[in-house]
Specification:
Blueprint: H1 5-9, H2 24-72, H3 77-123, H4 130-143, H5 152-166, H6 171-183, H7 194-209, H8 216-271, H9 275-283, H10 288-312, H11 317-356, H12 366-383, H13 386-394
Helix pairs in contact: 2-3, 2-10, 3-8, 3-10, 3-11, 4-12, 5-6, 6-7, 7-8, 8-11, 10-11, 11-12, 11-13
Length: 400
C-alpha cells in the first residue's frame, strides 16, 4: 500500500513512535486533561491580574478626575502645588498600571503559545489510533487481494501454466507474463489496477476462450474468477482515488512537521532553554505528571523572559513575542485544518463500502470493513474534533 497509508492516518509526525495498547487512550486523555488544566490556570491567572489592574486603572482615573475638579476650585497656590504633585504621582501610577496590564497580557499569551506549541508533538501523534487504523487498512487491502477468495489460488496456478506455455505464440499472453514479472505475482497479493488489470483481463479472456467443452467446470470457475478480478480491479481503482488524497495530506504533514521543529527551536532559544534538557524533561519523559511539572516551571521561565525583554528592550519588546505567537497560532490552525482533511478522507470510505455492498464477490466483506471503519472513525473522533481544534486556535490569545 502506498507508503503505509494507515500510518498517515495516525499522523506519526515525529520519530520515536511506539505501538500502544488499550491503556493508551487513558494516557492520551490524561495528557489532554493536564494540558487543558495548565492552559486554564494560565487563563485564570491572566484574567485575575487583568481584572485587578483594570480596577486599579479605573480607581486611578477617577481619582485623577476628582483631583482635576478640586484643582479648578482651589485658589490657594500652596494647595494647588500640593495637588499638582499628587496628580503627577497618580498619572505615574496610572501609566505603570497600564504597562503592567500590557505585560500581564503578553506573559499570559506567550505562555499559552508555548504550551500549545510543545503539546503539538503528542497531540498530533494519537497512538490510540494505531490498532484501529491497522485493522481497517489491512482489511481494506485484503479485500483487493484475489488470493483471499476461495478457489483463486488453485485456479491461478493453471492460468499461470497456460500463460507460460502460450506466451511465445500469443502477444497478449506475453504482455501478461512480462507485467507479472515486473509488478509481482498475483498469488503474492499484487493489487489489480491500471495497465496490469487490462492485460490480465485479456489473458484471462484468452484462457477462457481456449478451454474445451470437456473443461466445462474449469470454464465456469474461470468465468467466476474473471468476474472476481474485474470487481477487484474496479474496487482497487476506486480505493486508489481516495488514497491519492493521503499523498497530498502526507506532503502537508511533512511541511508542518518541519515548521513545528523550526518554531520549537526558535522559541527555545528565545527562552534560553537547552534543547537536550527540553527533550529529556518533556519530549522523552514518559511520566505525564513529570511533564506537567516541567511545563509549570516553563510558564515561570516564560513570564520572567517577557518581563526581562521589556526591561532591556523597552521600545520593541512586544515584537519579540508577537511574531512568534502569530506563527504558532497559524501553525496550530493549519494542524487543525489537516485533521479536518483526514476526517473527511476517512469518511470517503463510506462511499466505497456502499458502492460494493451488493457486489457478487466482495460484497459480503463490506460489513466487516464497515465495522472497522466505524472503529477507526470513533478512535479519530475521540482524539480530535477538528472544528473545536481550529476554534480553540483562533481563541488562544487574550486581546488587551
Amino acid at each position: 500500500m502506498r507508503r503505509n497509508i494507515y500510518l498517515l492516518t495516525i499522523m506519526i509526525l515525529l520519530s520515536g513512535i511506539q505501538a500502544f495498547g488499550q491503556t493508551d487512550s487513558i494516557k492520551v486523555s490524561l495528557e489532554q486533561s493536564l494540558k487543558q488544566s495548565l492552559l486554564k490556570s494560565i487563563q485564570v491567572k491572566t484574567d485575575s491580574m487583568d481584572d485587578q489592574l483594570g480596577t486599579k486603572l479605573t480607581d486611578l482615573d477617577e481619582r485623577i478626575q476628582m483631583l482635576d475638579k478640586s484643582l479648578s476650585q482651589t485658589s490657594s497656590e500652596a494647595q494647588k502645588i500640593e495637588k499638582l504633585i499628587e496628580r503627577v504621582k497618580l498619572i505615574e501610577d496610572f501609566q505603570q498600571a497600564e504597562k503592567d496590564a500590557e505585560l500581564n497580557i503578553y506573559q499570559g499569551n506567550y505562555q499559552s503559545a508555548i504550551i500549545n506549541l510543545v503539546s503539538m508533538e503528542r497531540e498530533l501523534r494519537p497512538l490510540i489510533l494505531f490498532s484501529a487504523a491497522r485493522d481497517f487498512f489491512q482489511t481494506l487491502n485484503a479485500i483487493g487481494n484475489p488470493t483471499q477468495y476461495p478457489g483463486f489460488n488453485n485456479w491461478y496456478k493453471g492460468f499461470q501454466a497456460y500463460v507460460e506455455e502460450n506466451k511465445k505464440d500469443n502477444p497478449s499472453l506475453s504482455v501478461v507474463s512480462n507485467l507479472v514479472s515486473l509488478t509481482g505475482d498475483l498469488s503474492a497479493g499484487t493489487p489489480i489496477f491500471g495497465t496490469f488489470s487490462q492485460a490480465l483481463f485479456m489473458g484471462m479472456s484468452n484462457y477462457i476462450d481456449n478451454l474445451g467443452k470437456r473443461d466445462k467446470k474449469l470454464k465456469e470457475q474461470s468465468q467466476q474468477m474473471f468476474e472476481l478480478v474485474a470487481e477487484l480491479g474496479q474496487y482497487t481503482n476506486d480505493k486508489n482515488l481516495i488514497e491519492t488524497e493521503w499523498e497530498a495530506i502526507d506532503t502537508e504533514l511533512e511541511e508542518l512537521k518541519e515548521l513545528y521543529a523550526q518554531n520549537l527551536d526558535k522559541n527555545l532559544k528565545i527562552l534560553g532553554i537547552d534543547k537536550k534538557e527540553f527533550e529529556r524533561r518533556y519530549s522523552n519523559e514518559n511520566d505525564a505528571n513529570q511533564r506537567y511539572e516541567y511545563l509549570n516551571e516553563l510558564t515561570n521561565i516564560i513570564a520572567n523572559r517577557v518581563r526581562t525583554e521589556r526591561e532591556v528592550n523597552a521600545k520593541n519588546w512586544k515584537n519579540t513575542f508577537y511574531n512568534e505567537m502569530a506563527e504558532i497560532q497559524s501553525l496550530k490552525i493549519r494542524f487543525g485544518g489537516i485533521t479536518f482533511r483526514i476526517s473527511e478522507n476517512i469518511s470517503k470510505y463510506n462511499g466505497l463500502i456502499d458502492k460494493y455492498k451488493e457486489a457478487k464477490h466482495i460484497g459480503p466483506r463490506m460489513s466487516d470493513l464497515e465495522t472497522k471503519l466505524n472503529s477507526l472513525k470513533s478512535a479519530f473522533d475521540t482524539a480530535f474534533n477538528p472544528l473545536e481544534y481550529i476554534n480553540a486556535a483562533n481563541k488562544m490569545y487574550k486581546v488587551d
